[in-house]
Known about the structure:
Elements: H1 2-7, H2 11-24, H3 29-41, H4 45-58, H5 63-75, H6 82-98, H7 117-136, E1 156-162, H8 169-174, H9 177-180, E2 186-192, H10 200-208, E3 211-214, H11 221-230, E4 235-238, H12 248-252, E5 258-261, E6 276-279, E7 295-298, H13 308-311, E8 318-321, E9 333-336, H14 341-346, E10 349-354, E11 369-374, H15 379-388, E12 392-395, E13 398-402, H16 406-409, H17 411-415, E14 423-427, E15 439-441, H18 451-463, E16 468-472, H19 479-488, E17 496-499, H20 504-509, E18 516-518, H21 527-534, E19 539-540, H22 551-559, H23 569-581, H24 583-599, H25 605-624
Parallel strand pairs: 1-2, 1-4, 2-3, 4-5, 5-6, 6-7, 8-11, 13-14, 15-16, 15-18, 16-17, 18-19
Antiparallel strand pairs: 8-9, 9-14, 10-11, 12-13
Amino acid sequence: MGNTLKEMQDIQGALQCYTRAIQINPAFADAHSNLASIHKDSGSIPEAIASYKTALKLKPEFPDAYCNLAHCLQIVCDWTDYEARMKKLVSIVADQLDKNRLPSVHPHHSMLYPLSHGFRKAIAARHGNLCLEKINVLHKPPYPHPKDTTASKGRIRVGYVSSDFGNHPTSHLMQSIPDMHNRENVEVFCYALSADDNTTFRSKIAGGAEHFVDLSQIPCNGKAADRISSDGVHILVNMNGYTKGARNEIFALRPAPIQVMWLGYPGTSGATFMDYIITDKVTSPYELRDQYSEKLAYMPNTFFIGDHAQMFPHLKERVIIESMEGKKADNVSIVNGVDLKPIVQKVVEKKKEDTRVHNGGPLIKDEHTGTPIFDLPTTTAVHTMVKEGQIQTTVEGVVVQNGLATNQVNNKAATGEEVPKQIIVTTRMQYGLPENAIVYCNFNQLYKIDPATLQMWVAILKRVPDAVIWLLKFPAVGEPNIQQTAQDMGLPGSRIIFSPVAPKEEHVRRGQLADVCLDTPLCNGHTTGMDVLWAGTPMVTLPGETLASRVAASQLQTLGCPELVARTRQEYEDIAVRLGNDRVFLRQTRAKVWKARSSSPLFSCRQYAADMEMLYRKMWNRYERGMSPDHVMN
């Protein structure tokens, strides 16, 4: 009964059922495991861990409980017996694959563990086959597919399918793409798998597409596929993969002649019904093609995209305020705004001829560039505002807003749905960051950190005096585990600073305060990588072999900063240490990243949309000539 209620999304009802089952039979291991999964899905990780441990005490050979417990421990960075845990998890997966069972490790989690590429692909394939089994009971005949583009007057009909058309990182990345497609080349359909959340993200995507269909109103996968087929879609794009809200059964029914993986899932589908994966030569090198069941379709630059230029134009320029200690750094006290003229006109501007960049271009004509630095006669007002938590203050008659107060001033600006109209002040003081230290940062969820990554970070901090690393309480229960492990490695607790998760606009804007972002090699910052680069902060990465571990390298390559991509653990540490100890090199690198945001293709949605259309045309041309899908290289 509890499982049925869980399937129907009645979480409270399922919770009551599992709790009652345990009351009736406290030794019922499956009920404890099911209760744990409810806690896990609800974000109550400590409760989930306790219930999984109880289930395993009652039933030691319980693969699902063991692998789910391992994932919970990864979420909170509990690395007790880490090596033994990984070894057992790999042996469980090997045994399940050998016996042709559905593995207990979910495809989306498989990149976190030391599994072979073959195992990861096989895990995904089992889930793909599960979708085929589910649709077989519908006994639907194959759909007739369009053979040409006559009905659409030569345009390719592209259908984007996602459960994340709303306030979700996927929409933050691609919300402008439907509207930026050239209507002479493509006819855009968007199929939403989730109900309208009444955000401007949803309305922007709906408004940008020629056809927007809410498939959440058509829960039957067969009927949903019927709708897509009747629309005559040529290329159907899967933006979910195996993430929450996916309906891969629709793709298993093959309502379109070409089916493509894109953006929302960092790995292969393993599915026979997916033809291509949109990627690039850095993220998915040709020599690693065997990791994928799909054919590789290369974008000319990175396959990743971000809507930051449209969402956060107020971060395109900044001015800096001299700190109370007289420090003139570009990331201690910062002023951002869409229109900074009011404050510029009110105070005396001093140009400092160094390597910093303002508004994406040089202010003086020699090899150096300058960022405006302001001697505010009323600097005290800004510091008082921050210290006392005031929402705003006045500087020379100009109202400036406390960067921590965006949520109180305009909720839609806080979520990134609207561009803030105010001039906003962001300071290290707001987050308890030292003004005179090098601040490294990583704003990923903590599950992306593993012992080897923390070891590198600790080694870097030991080589850069007084430097700190700034992490997120994502989740908060992971903080003491990270702190304890780092202290066991010989790093004082004061060298790691944790902040709460922030609303989207503040999250991106406060990235300006860090000197350098240290990426997580196990699974990179994907959206968070774009966020920190838009803030003008350099990111150091170390690519592995999985797609999820190579995205940051692809982003940096497109930005024009390949020197930040390490080839070894030692090189990762050395790049980070040089940035920390060599202030000239740091300023030059920060200037380069700041400028490249607008000069490189990384944040150009219009260029990206045009590149996608060329890729779609190549896929379609093969199909139209009666050829099977094959790798599409530049």
